[in-house]
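Q: A reviewer asked whether we had any structural model of the full assembly, not just the individual parts. We don't, so I'm hoping you can provide one. Inputs are below.
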Amino acid sequence: MQDLLTEIAEVAAENPDKGEVANYIPELAGIDPGQFGMAIALADGSVFSAGDADVPFSIQSVSKIFALTLALGRVGDQIWRRVGREPSGLAFDSILLLERENGIPRNPFINAGALVTTDTYLAGSSPREALGELVRFVRAAADDDDIHINEKVARSEIASGHRNFSLAHYLASHGNMYSSVDKVLGTYCHQCAVEMTCRQLALAGRFLIDADSMPALVSVERRRRINALMMTCGHYDGSGDFAFRVGMPGKSGVGGGILVISPGRASIAVWSPGLNQYGNSKLGTEAMELLAQKTGWSVFGVPHVRTDGDV
Ligand code: GLU
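A: Here is a predicted structure for the entire assembly that you could use as a starting point for your response.
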């Protein structure tokens, strides 16, 4: 596994096309696109890493996995009255479907849906308490207390987040936003500004692996459902392409991080800040594709079953 990660990091380092760093959040615009890190936490407890795996980065939308988990913990299946479970086929911050579908976002991983999940785990708490709960959950999952919110990144996004504010106002106009828009946006932008290293993120993802040896933070059924949503909706309008190329559930963020789960086997984090046309890490996606090819870990790669029933 270590040789494979080292090889993947070398392939990434040699690729001259590193993608474009997200520039709509000013604080993220100046990040060096030449960075690449990857870490794998296996179900047997071993951890491997390569490249810049210990450099903290802004997890951005990868946080939507943790937010959804908290929201499900708060209200269970009631959440599905306020947000759907279908891929949107549109950009992460699109407002188009919200009008046609009466303020019910397609899924919890596009921005509109994530604002609903933030509003859900925020209900009845102050933003400080809700964010405290989120950070405590992530620290417990990673078994590491050195995980923090970058206040500068959060403020930078609050100051420039016109689209997210308009999505939230639109949701509010349909009665699908219970706390005030300012409170929800403040909490959402801080949630996105959590910083983690690849190693920490791979460890934090272990609760989704579905193996007895892993932290049991959610029920088996919930774990499977979160993985299903990651597979179908985790990469915005690039979700089909990611499933085609990698074949494992994953969630990306515009900071260039991706968390991928190999059910029963591993939690894998990759980070490279340059993005592809869908707003997902370019080298990160290519690295996951290479990993899937070399390991055969695509969930669609079941062994060929012969007609006599033998595998
Ligand atoms: N905080 C970012 C936004 O709402 C997250 C988007 C992403 O990571 O894909 O625009």
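A: Points you may want to mention in the reply: The chain has two domains: 2-60+195-295, 63-193. The first strand starts at residue 20 and ends at 21.
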